[in-house]
# Entry
Amino acid sequence: MSYTIHQAHTKTEFDEITDVMWRTMDGADPSHGIFFPTFGDGPDAKAAAIAESKERIWNQYKYNPASHWIYVREQSTGKVVASCQWRVYDENLFQKGPPTIVAVWWPEGSVGRKFASEVVNQCYTPRTRWMARPHLGLSQMCVLPSHQRRGIGSMLMHWGLEHTDQQGIESFIEATEAGRYLYEKFGYRAVKSVHVDMSRVNVEDEELEEWKELERKFLPLGYTALWRPIRGVQDEDEFKRTWSKRMSL
# Structure
């Protein structure tokens, strides 16, 4: 099969990308349900969740100049079969320190919003130590199962790494175990594992039952932080010095 790679700019393209994300991630990755929850059962509830995520992803793109969504089409059918988001930051994103993130995509005042906010902040806060410099980040890489192991993931990687090497900046990925092999092929190195830990979170008694149900549904959850130095070049001693210093911050 032949494929072509594109950068998304229109709402129609983003709707196609979001459909691929749902077909790839729903039920396969616990983090999908944290960021794109479905409220209720049945096809109507799922359709509403997909529609909400399409609007949210489109709006986030419009107001974030660092965001670049890349996708792959199968030539014979014209269908989108894979996508990812590359974010290019030419300055320190965390000059004002770690932000506090509220999971506003969950209902206001709900236990789910509190739970999702805690998960997101635990996952996001470590970035402020590692990524406090110009960098390129990758997220939301999805390849439809029927098109995996055909080099499509490598096509998406080449797009981003050409840009990061041209600009001479570092790159970071927060990877699941399923994705590590691909990223390490392109010179990324594991620097830290992060796991969500709810043992120190104070939960109100009246919320505890629902909170525990969310834990059973979405946890365990974590990722491995992967780093690629500028142009992918750094010897072992330099790598150890770099990350010994950053981990001490």
About this structure: The first helix runs from residue 11 to 25.
